[in-house]
Amino acid sequence: MEQKPRLGFWDIFNMSFGFLGIQFGFGLQAANTSRIFQTYGAEVESLAILTIAAPLTGLFVQPIIGFLSDRTWSPRWGRRKPYFMIGAILATISLIIMPNSSSLYMAVGMLWIMDTAFNVSMEPFRAFVGDLLPSEQRTRGYAMQSVFIGVGAVLASLLPLLFSWFGMSSTGEGEHEVGQAVKWSYYVGAFAFIAAVAWTVFSTKEYPPEEKQFTEDEGPQKPAGIPWTMFQLAVVQFFSWFGLFAMWIYTTPTVATHIFGSGDAATAAYQDGANWVGGSFGVYNGVAAIMGFLIPMIAGATSRKTTHQICLVLGAIGLGSIFLVTDKYLLLLSMVGIGCAWASILSMPYAILVGSLPEKELGLWVGVFNIFIVLPQIVAATILGWLLTHFFDKDPRYAMLIGGVSFLVAALFVFIVKDKDEPNQLTMKKEFNKWI
User: 57: which residues sit within 8 A by CB, 6+ positions away?
Assistant: First the structure.
């Protein structure tokens, strides 16, 4: 068997570009789902359980899609690309319908459909890097995905704020109507999603099965069964994603109530606060995009594990500090630390994991690995509202503090992870020199 060929910058750019569209959709969802639900009358303590759709769909959809994509081959469409496109079409439709829902329950139902579509597109992208790149380029491949995730989410997060600056209303005309600024953000997101995914589909070639017999340059023999590395990373992922879910659900009510002075979604002050959260999320995603270029250099100078620990600690400081923030501009400083963590969460665990997986079952095992992303979100959705109600007088700031502690615990558990496929320092040095 021959070695898996190295790919050039533009090859990696094209194969990762679709993530810009996928994260455009996820960015809109993360920044605006709470405000949409509260616009339709949801109470703050019920937000977590109402958004349980996202983790539940991932729990079932990602392993199934991974399994199917491992066993799919079309001479015209390839292995992973059919799923990219099917998910993109469904996501485009649901993004258009979501802000035009007629009730809270319809909005919740559309979230289920929309998140299912996101997962159908997203899961094969993780295996895509392992399919096409050799070990020493894998960190670079996942980091490039982080760049596009950051860029897509920046644009998505800022759109409602930008549209409001151009005169669109953030509040709807009716009692339970979503404002035009949010609606048009979703329309733009729908176009961006399908356009970016289509770019990757039509610009990237997948290896047919008879060509996909490669050895890794220096990687270990792929083990049978579930690799122990996955379980080690699972603990890290649990606490990382618990913290992220707390942030996504409760940042809007936290900022609207404690910085802008209103917890009522029908008021202009609340909507101003929600717009500022969108802009703030744009900051952390912008930082993540920049970190996508820096992470391969940091990993080359240290290791993938050390890089992940540093970023998680910065994220813990950033997220936990929101508990104390009372000025909207200081909130942006908190987002810098979160952005560092987000970039690493999107890249380092996968770069570490894929080297321990059976080559022919990358899609399946990456899908199974994502269960450990989904479970903490289900746990968070189940207990966060209860904790806030019974221990913290429904004050959403405490969700920020809990999330920060969760990031810190994740950083500590990185110590137990064994990176079996860490490239040697000479290879990594050559790799990060190519970035500069």
Answer: 112, 115, 116, 119
- Residue-level pLDDT at 218: 42
Instruction: State which H helix or E strand residue 215 sits in.
Output: strand 214-215
The encoded tokens of residue 38 equal: 């509260």
Is the separation of the CB atoms in 376 and 245 below 8 Å?
Answer: yes
Please tell me the distance from the alpha carbon of residue 360 to that of residue 74, in angstroms, as a whole number: 16
- 265-302 in b/e form (b: 16+ CB < 10 A) is beeeebbbbbbbbbbbbbbbbbbbbebbbebbbbbbee
**Which carries the bigger pLDDT value, residue 333 or residue 65?**
333
Which residues, at least 6 apart from 180, have a Cβ–Cβ distance to it below 8 Å?
Answer: 163, 168, 169, 172
Which CATH architecture is the domain 2-206+227-435 placed in? Answer: Up-down Bundle (1.20)
| Ranges of each domain in the chain | 2-206+227-435
Q: Provide the pLDDT for residue 377.
A: 81
Q: What is the DSSP letter of 261?
A: S
How far are the Cα atoms of 111, 171, 214, 327 from residue 106, in angstroms, in the given order?
9, 19, 48, 35
**Rounded CA gap, 336 and 316, in Å?**
11
The residues, ordered by sequence, that sit 6+ positions from 78 with a Cβ below 8 Å of its Cβ are 205, 206
Residues 6+ apart with CB under 8 A from 162: none
Number of other CB atoms surrounding residue 434 within 10 Å: 11
Q: What's at 82, amino acid-wise?
A: P
Q: Are strands 2-3 and 214-215 parallel, antiparallel or unpaired?
A: parallel
Query: Does 214 have pLDDT greater than 60?
Result: no
CB crowding 122-143: b at 16 or more within 10 Å, else e:
bbbbbbbbbbbbbbbbbbbbbb
pTM of the model: 0.69
Tell me: the pLDDT tens digits for 12-48? 899 889 988 988 888 888 778 878 888 888 877 777 7
The secondary structure of the chain in percent helix, strand, coil, rounded to multiples of 5, reads 75, 0, 20
* Res. 80: pLDDT tops 60: yes
* Average pLDDT estimate for 86-108: 90
Contacts (Cβ under 8 Å, ≥6 apart) of 286: 150, 151, 154, 339
Q: Is the pLDDT of residue 371 over 90?
A: no
Distance CA 432, CA 299 (A): 9
pLDDT band at 425; cut points 50, 70, 90: very low
Residue 165 burial class via C-beta count within 10 angstroms: exposed 0-12, middle 13-18, buried 19 and up:
exposed
